[in-house]
Design brief:
globular, C-type_lectin/snaclec_domain, CTDL_fold, C-type lectin domain-containing protein
Length: 100
C-alpha cells in the first residue's frame, strides 16, 4: 500500500478527517497531517508537493516556537485547529491513498 499523511484542501475535508478520528477514538487527539515548512521556513507545503491553499491555523500559528516547529498537526486546543510543531513527537496520524 502506498499511502501518505493526509493533505487537506478545504474545511469540509478537515471536518471529514475529524469525524473519522472521532469515530475511531471518541475524542479529538492531536493528529499528524502531511504539512511541513522544513524545506523553506514559512513556506508550507503538503507532502505531495502542493502549497497550502486552505489553512485552519490556531490563533498566533504557525509560530515556529524555539525555531524548531516544521511539521503540522490538527485538533490543537479547544478550537481543534492546526498548529506547527516539532516533527519528532509521537502522535496518531491520518494517511490517504489513491485507488488504482
Amino acid at each position: 500500500m502506498h499511502a501518505n499523511l493526509a493533505s487537506v484542501r478545504s474545511l469540509r475535508e478537515y471536518r471529514v478527517i475529524q469525524r473519522v478520528i472521532y469515530r475511531a477514538t471518541h475524542r479529538y487527539p492531536l493528529t499528524w497531517l502531511g504539512g511541513s515548512d522544513a524545506q523553506k521556513e514559512h513556506h508550507w507545503f503538503w507532502i505531495d508537493g502542493t502549497p497550502f491553499r486552505f489553512t485552519y491555523w490556531c490563533r498566533g500559528e504557525p509560530n515556529n516556537a524555539r525555531h524548531n516547529e516544521h511539521c503540522l498537526h490538527m485538533n490543537n486546543t479547544g478550537y481543534r485547529c492546526m498548529n506547527d510543531i516539532y516533527c519528532h513527537y509521537r502522535y496518531p496520524f491520518v494517511c490517504v491513498w489513491k485507488r488504482r
